[in-house]
TrEMBL record:
InterPro entries the record matches: Chitinase_II/V-like_cat, Chitinase_insertion_sf, GH, Glyco_hydro18_cat, Glycosyl_Hydrlase_18
Cellular component GO terms held in the UniProt record: extracellular region
Keywords: Hydrolase
Family matches, as SMART domains: Glyco_18 (SM00636)
Annotated protein name in UniProt: Glycoside hydrolase family 18 protein
Amino acid sequence: IATAWYAGWHASDFPVSSINWKNYNTLVYAFAETTPSVNSITLEGSDPDVLPGFVSAAHQNGVSALVGIGGWSGSAYFSSDLGSADNRTAFANTLSNFVQQYNLDGLSFDWEYPGVQAAGQNVVSPMDTSNFLAFLQEFRNTPVGKKLILAASVPVSPFRDAQGNTSKDLSGFAKVLNYITIMDYDIFGSWSSAVGPNAPLADSCAPTQYQQGSATSAVNKWMSTGFPANQIVLGVPSYGHSYRVKSSDAFVNNPTSKLGLSSNELAAYPPFDQNDQPEGDAWGGSAGTFEFWGLIKGGFLDEQGAPAQGIYSRFDSCSQTPYVYNEDSQVMVSYDDRASFSAKGAYIKQNGLRGFSMWEAGGDYQNLLLDAIRLSIGF
């Protein structure tokens, strides 16, 4: 599977006509959000007028059109929607009608997260994981559900059980879902104690306190619960997180680089000012994120995606991800580049995974990231 999420709220900047369809065989429109009523979902935050044209263009290009259900801010009512047998049946009907209304090929459930509070306003129950499975089993057996591609976006750690522990057996999900997409990104960010990789390929080679999750550890964990490799898609990011890092912390041995005392080598896991989040690109804004194109437009990278002149950089061999640092603005960004995507593509191929899914379709620059991962996998 070669897929990505298409963020409907970015359609004015990245219209459907800008999608390079030949790079994908599946595309997911993000998001239809849950509502207080089990009888409805809403596209209100994702430009609903764009979805029909998205589906039509996908089908004209031989690409499967899915819609993501939920998302970070749209998962508030999953727990209540699936909390009883009557609600599960009602929600199955809601989704069946939605699929037929928009002529969809499938749905990708992005519940963030079963049994865990995430965005802050979610309904949460210890029975979330078992209720989710019961719903999927019911929906898969409906006349509409039988024909659909059904997927789920999942965190790097498997779902919690009713006791709040990591589930040991999720094989039931593997029987009703075509695949899961592991969201291997946002591993480090503004909430962390130090600058770290946004989307590490591996982390067992990192210092213990910085082993916060990675593609390799996540795949191993999900496989141990009963998911075969060929039902696992690796989520890869087209964006990175920015941090305000003092020059005295940014370089190895705390040098003052402008006075010529530095080897110009960036330090690993430097501290940052948690009270001074840098502004991101036009899409990242106050969240401080930079799309790959934003790093180029912002002067961190050149047109080929390499560090621009005057920008310090470091490639972390453990996580297989780079960092760039602008000493003038004291902004450091952890992101994925072509080498990161190539390494992840090789991992996907070598381990027999189902494919990749990029967040998001509009984040690349002249297909530099997509070309790297597709070539590495062999698409």
